[in-house]
Amino acid sequence: MIESFGLADTLQTAFVLIVAFVLGTLIGAERQYRQRNAGLRTNVLVALGAASFVHLGIELNGHAGAVQVVAYVVSGVGFLGAGVIMREGGEVRGLNTAATLWGSAAVGAACGAHAIGQAVVVTALVLAGNTLLRPLVNAINRAPLDEAATEASYEVRAVVKLADVMAARDLLVATLEAAHYPVRDVSVEKHGTEDAELVAELVANTIDTGEVEAVIARLEASDLVDEASWTSATSD
């Protein structure tokens, strides 16, 4: 061990790891400021660990060793990122934090491979993604939905009496098709012992709001329908 010890190699290793530490700190500080699950220390340790492993791979087996270690770093960080993703009801949280950990690992791996310039660029872009793009994301989220230009799935719902389900179903389908909105499927959801809700899924990817509101009005004018409404869900 003493014979293999070299001051130059030690200094190079220290430089690589210190750079990974500093860049990981920059990324982690932004996450810590926003009180995310994976904050300052987590991002620093991910960057530092990735740099250590990749640098060790280079020391042991040159570029081939680095390539092998990087492959394992990528898969390993994927499992680590999955640990910060949580589902709360219908909402999924932690995706951005997991992606940031992925970025920290990339920064560390670049440092370990002695690609310091690339590590700095990746750090800058990760920070830009988490900060500079935030106003754009907020602006898009606040923008009103253009039903005529957005691809979405649509449903028309009608609350009816259980005894009138079949007749109301025929009325629902006929009214929608007369308005040139073909029906893909109609399901029945029971509400208690007397009422049911018919749910018609439309084939159309875009609709005219005025036309659908007119369909709703015609349905509610019928003695077979107690209440009618329509909903939309945009696709990814």
Automatic annotation (TrEMBL):
<dbReference type="InterPro" id="IPR049177">
    <property type="entry name" value="MgtC_SapB_SrpB_YhiD_N"/>
</dbReference>
<keyword id="KW-0812">Transmembrane</keyword>
<feature type="transmembrane region" description="Helical">
    <location>
        <begin position="40"/>
        <end position="58"/>
    </location>
</feature>
<dbReference type="InterPro" id="IPR003416">
    <property type="entry name" value="MgtC/SapB/SrpB/YhiD_fam"/>
</dbReference>
<dbReference type="Pfam" id="PF02308">
    <property type="entry name" value="MgtC"/>
</dbReference>
<feature type="transmembrane region" description="Helical">
    <location>
        <begin position="64"/>
        <end position="86"/>
    </location>
</feature>
<keyword id="KW-1003">Cell membrane</keyword>
<feature type="transmembrane region" description="Helical">
    <location>
        <begin position="12"/>
        <end position="28"/>
    </location>
</feature>
<keyword id="KW-0997">Cell inner membrane</keyword>
<dbReference type="InterPro" id="IPR048640">
    <property type="entry name" value="MgtC-like_C"/>
</dbReference>
<dbReference type="GO" id="GO:0005886">
    <property type="term" value="C:plasma membrane"/>
</dbReference>
<comment type="function">
    <text>Virulence factor required for growth in low Mg(2+) medium and for intramacrophage survival. May be involved in regulating membrane potential by activating Na(+)/K(+)-ATPase.</text>
</comment>
<comment type="similarity">
    <text>Belongs to the MgtC/SapB family.</text>
</comment>
<protein>
    <recommendedName>
        <fullName>Protein MgtC</fullName>
    </recommendedName>
</protein>
<keyword id="KW-1133">Transmembrane helix</keyword>
<keyword id="KW-0472">Membrane</keyword>
<feature type="domain" description="MgtC-like C-terminal">
    <location>
        <begin position="154"/>
        <end position="230"/>
    </location>
</feature>
<feature type="domain" description="MgtC/SapB/SrpB/YhiD N-terminal">
    <location>
        <begin position="17"/>
        <end position="137"/>
    </location>
</feature>
<dbReference type="Pfam" id="PF21770">
    <property type="entry name" value="MgtC_SapB_C"/>
</dbReference>
